[in-house]
Amino acid sequence: MLSISIILFLFIFLLVIVTSSVWSACGKIFKIEKLTFKNALATAIIITIVNVIISILDFLLSFVIISDIYYNLFCEVFGLILGIIGMILVIWIIKKRFETTKLRAAGFLLVQIIFVVGVALFISTFVLRAFTIPAGSMKNTLLVGDDILVSMLYYKFQSPKRS
Question: How do residues 93-108 score in pLDDT, each as one tens digit?
Answer without folding.
Answer: 878 887 878 887 787 7
